[in-house]
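[09:14] KT: can someone run the structure on this one? pasting the chain below
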Amino acid sequence: MLPPGWWSWQEDALSGSPGHDRHHAYWQQEEPGMRKIICSTYISLDGVIEDPAWTMPYFDDEASAFAGEQTDSADALLMGRRTYEGFAAAWPNQDESDPSTGAAYFNNVKKYVASTTLTGPEWKNSEVLQGDLVEAVTRLKAQEGRDILMYGYGTVTHTLVKAGLVDEVRFWITPVFVGGPSISSPLDDVATTLTLAGTKVMKSGVIIATYTPAAQ
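[09:31] RB: done, structure tokens below
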């Protein structure tokens, strides 16, 4: 299941959010039963995540099945404004009657957008988070429901990682050198330690490395 709008991975910063700078860089101890936030990110061997059209030759049935497992386990998406706008421009144009497209899922699932500038989102079931990002996401995790899925690794994801709210980061390491700038835009205070929780090696050469919060 391949998101047609997946070229918009550079998430928006919420540096203007009230209280944004008072959240400490540590992994919080979660209460049992809290929803998980799963970040799923395609990355090349040279660290590129932007415009990942280069993953297309590797997105075979095995990759599609794993992507489908992720969406089956999640009843909400969380994203920054740029990712949202890319998805919102692409998914409504896809055929929801064709299960191989994933359009029925992405068009109807609940979508939370982390943005201080977006108003009146028109894509179905979209909601802009209000107030402080970390506090808003903490409330989401405390609600009943399944996983919350994120795509890409930008400033929104990094803010939540530093606040201890992301449970797993899954890097789809693709055997290709893309060239150009690596990762995304520079991330402030980027030092973060994760623990390898598992790997899945696909016949295409893609390795999905799953990381969880490192013990502090």
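[09:33] KT: thanks! The chain has a mean pLDDT of 83.
[09:34] RB: yep, looked fine to me
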